Each structure stands twice: as structure tokens, then as C-alpha cells.
Amino acid sequence: MTDSVPLLEARDIAKSYGAVQALRSADLVVEPGEVHALLGANGAGKSTLVKVLTGVISPDRGTFAINGNPVRIGSPAQAARNGLAPVFQDPALVPDLTIAQNMRLTGASPAAVERELRALDLAVDFSEQARDVPLPMLRMIDLARALARDPQLLLLDEITAALPSDLAERVFTVMRASRERGRSVLFITHRLKEVIASCDRATILRDGGAVATIVPEEGGEETIVEYMLGPEAAQAVVAAVDKDAGDVRATPAATGVTPALEVIDLSMGRVRGVSFSLRPGEILGVAALEGQGQDDLFAVLSGQQSPASGEVRAGGKMLKARHPYDAIRAGVVLVPADRLQALLPQRSVRENIAAPRYNSVRRWGPINVRDEGRRVREAEEALQIDTRAARQVRRLSGGNQQKVTIARWLANGFATMLCFDPTRGIDVGTKRQIYALLRRLADDGAAILFFSSELAEFPLVCDRVLALFGGEVTAELAGAAADEASLLRAMHGLAAEAEAVA
Ligand SMILES: Nc1ncnc2c1ncn2[C@@H]1O[C@H](COP(=O)(O)OP(=O)(O)OP(=O)(O)O)[C@@H](O)[C@H]1O
Ligand SMILES: [Mg+2]
Question: What does the pLDDT look like over 331-372, one tens digit per residue?
């Protein structure tokens, strides 16, 4: 492979935003027919490099060659002509337009995109408005649009972060098929298992520079983490993993405590007759494949939708939320899947965390401090938010935006936190901190409902896990027993077997 002419050779790429040096001097070489991972902690410069390579932003410095020929990548059109097609970190679809209109807007042929979707075994209604399409499906549409161009190099910026395992599998199939046809993929992810399983080589960025290119299978996760975080921080992560492994949690005793959240025979959209109870101090997982009702369940509990039937109680009181404010007033807050939905992108990190809109809301729960500045600082520190670009949240890296969606509730207080994929796009070091943070909140009396598309998180985070299949709860597993195989069986509705394991 190394004898061939590289498909892409990018050298000495630099890009600054004012005082923030997003890329210092990054090199990247992608061979034909390889799946190449681009790795790095939150804010390392991965998305910036993707945007430079695809002509969305122009670098301050750097050279590019495609198939050995020097090229300029001055615009997205030029990048496309060079055979580069990106899927960006956030959905690139205008919410108020239909899918078909979105396709035409970006010069994609709806028919070609539809063909790619069919090849992915997905049916999408092109007359639907983008805002009504669930996030995972938007990501698959972005993928199909990129594939429709039959690119030499497909650049995937954290596409699997928002995908449940069944859809993520289809992305891996696409990557394998590309390799077989001599095409290449640049694949960004924070899930290191995906890198080991699916990538031929990996380039690791730290603080805007490439620190190494390795063969993941040989180095393993530890090597990657060490390059990503530096040797000392990596040690801390490895130590934390070892500790987690020995830390089997018992479900807290059920007796005598008013549940923080009680769901009784709830139906709405895909949710059919779901009942469960969540106690203060408990982290309850919800595991599901794509489209099993998890979206509707979180939408009802957070007051975005009204239930068709059934009941929700918060802290023992009936919760009839017609608006998210109603839920927030009852102490039930949401960390949503789509961070852009939760944030005021043009506003500062501080304004987003302090979220003045909620100032009239009674302070809840374990964290209850008066001074706004201190609350914001503490939340920033608890989540180690990179505030170099703090004046506008939209300028933060994706992972740091995600941290802000959690930080605001630390600063404002709550009784029950509904976390929908809270570590989506968060790097391996910070993930550990978030797991620890959720546990600390629970130990202080918070109740947490936790959906994740990353199955490995359930045994690390949850006391109990419910499997949702076809809108119904089909199994309940103890957190410690929620290994990947048991979860997958339960999530496919094979409840009897799952129960036998649990
Ligand atoms: N428009 C902008 N203005 C100011 N700073 C920016 C802008 N875009 C990115 N940055 C900064 O550049 C740095 C690198 O960001 P980038 O989005 O490339 O990180 P990343 O490696 O993709 O991280 P993540 O894993 O969180 O997605 C960050 O510090 C970010 O805040
Ligand atoms: Mg990014």
C-alpha cells in the first residue's frame, strides 16, 4: 500500500480563528482503498481539518495533492471535483425545507440519493420536512447524499455518534464496500472500538498537530489514548477503566422512597403502554435500536409532546406537561440528542449555561448555589469545557458544545435528568468524567434516565436497564448484567433469553 501514490496528501495545514489555533501544522496522508481514522480529543482540530479539505474554510497555510497532483481546494465545488465528499459533524439539512428541497438546494439528485438510501435498506419520505425527521435518519440522508457523488474519498465526521448500533453497522458496511472498490474513507469517531474493528490506519491529532499515524489493530486502544491525550492523562483514563470494571453496582432499595419519576401505561407515537419507575439516586438505562419509541418517550417526559394516554408523575405529583417549561418547573430536565436544539448558538458559553430564560424556575436538587458566575465556572470546570472560543457557542468544537448542554443543568439544578445520548461526540477522557459526574449527581439524590446509542456505556453507568422494542419495554436487566450480547438480544425483543441472562 505504501508504494502506491497517495490518494490524498495534505501537508503543514494551519488554521487560526483569532487567538485560537485550531490547526498548527497538520499532515494527513490517505492511501487509495483504505479506511483511515482521524482521531483526537475534543477540540483537537478534526472537524477543522475536514472543513479545510472540503473547501468550506480556507487554511492559513498548507499544500494538497490528489493522486500525486498538487491541487488547490478553494471551494466545496472544487473539493467535489477532486472526488472528496464530506458528511459534516452536524446535519447539513435546512430544517424548514423538505428532504427533496434540501437535496435540490445542494445540487444532489433526489433520485440518486434515494437509490443510495435503498441500498442502505432505508425508506425515507422525501416530502417530509427535515425538522420532522429523527436525527439518526438525517445522518443517513447526509451519508446517502455524499455516496450519491461516488467519491474517491468519503469524509465522515462523527457520523456514528448519533447512530444506534443497527444503523452504525450499515456505515461499516459502506466503509468495507468502499475499500473493496479501491475507494477511501476518512472516518472520525470517539468510539475507539470502531477504530480497531474497521480502520486500516489512524492519524491522531493533538492540539492541532498530527502526532502519529498508526495501525490501530497493532497499537490497540491504549496506544491511541496515549497519543490523543498525552502519556499522563492517558494513565488516568486507563486507571479509571480498571476501577470501573471492579465496581459492580447494586440497585438501591426500592422501599419507602417517592419515585422521582413514575411512568404509568404511557402511550404516544411509537410508545405503547410503557410503565416504569425511577427513584432518586438511580440511573436507569433505556436501550433500543433505531426507532423503537425512545424519541417519543423522551419527548413526552420532557414536555415536548403530550401523551396519547397514560400518566407521568414527577416527585409524586401528576405531571401534565404541555411545554418543556412545565417539565422543567417540575424538576425534569432534558439533555437532548440534538445539541443545536438546546443551545443558543450565537450566545456565549456563559449565557447558555446560565440560561436566563429559566431564571424564574425554582432551583432544584443537589446543586443549588446563588452566584451565577460561580455556578457557571463550576459547571465549566466539572465538564472541562474548552472555553477558548467561549464568546459564541457555535464556535466551540462539537464535543464542547455537547458539554454545555449538560453544564447548564448543573448550574441550574434539577430533580430528574433525561439524558439522550449525553456523551455523543465526547472524547474518551471526558467521557469517563461524565460517567463519574452522573454517578455523583445520583449519589447526591438526582434521578437519571439514560439513553445511549453506545452499548458499552450501560454497564458502566446504569443501575438498571430497560430494553425498548416495538414501543414496549421487553426486558429489564441489572446494570452489571447489561453486557453487549445481553443488551442486543433484549433490544431485538428476544426478552426470554435476555431475562435468563439477567
Ligand atoms: N468559527 C470558529 N471560531 C473560533 N474558534 C473556532 C471556530 N471553529 C472552531 N474553533 C475552535 O477550533 C478548535 C478545534 O475545533 P474542531 O471543531 O476542529 O475540534 P474537533 O477535533 O472536531 O473536536 P470535537 O471532537 O469536539 O468535534 C476548538 O478550540 C474550537 O473552539
Ligand atoms: Mg468535531
Answer: 999 998 888 778 888 888 888 887 644 444 444 444 444 566
C-alpha cell at position 99: 428532504
Cβ partners under 8 Å of residue 376, min gap 6: 349, 350, 353, 354, 407, 411
Q: Which atom of ligand 1 is nearest to the CA of 158?
A: 27
**CATH architecture type of domain 8-83+151-242:** 3-Layer(aba) Sandwich (3.40)
Look at residue 237 in the predicted model and tell me its pLDDT. 63
What is the location of CATH 3.40.50.300 in the chain?
8-83+151-242, 261-501
Taking the CA atoms of residue 118, residue 122, residue 124 and residue 130 in that order, the dihedral angle to the nearest 10 degrees is: -120
Nearest ligand, measured from the Cα of 189: 1
Dig out the grid coordinates for 3 from the structure. Answer: 508504494
Measured CA to CA, the distance from residue 500 to residue 502 in angstroms comes to: 6
Separation of CA 263 and ligand 1 centre (Å): 40
CA Rg value for the chain? 23
pTM of the model: 0.83
- Cα 112 to middle of ligand 1, angstroms: 32
Which residues does a 6 A CB cutoff place in the pocket of ligand 1? 17, 20, 22, 40, 42-48, 89, 386, 388-389, 395-400, 425, 427
- 172-177, Cβ contacts within 8 angstroms, sequence gap of 24 or more: 172/197, 172/198, 174/120, 174/143, 174/147, 175/35, 176/35
Which pLDDT value is given to residue 365?
Answer: 46
Q: Mutate which of 192, 395, 404, 424 to test ligand 1's pocket (most atoms within 8 Å of Cβ)? A: 395
What's the CA gap between 14 and 62, in Å, rounded? 6
CA dist., res. 294 & res. 277, Å (int):
16
Q: Which of 397, 402, 403 to mutate to test the pocket of ligand 1 (most atoms within 8 A of CB)?
A: 397
Architecture of domain 261-501: 3-Layer(aba) Sandwich (3.40)
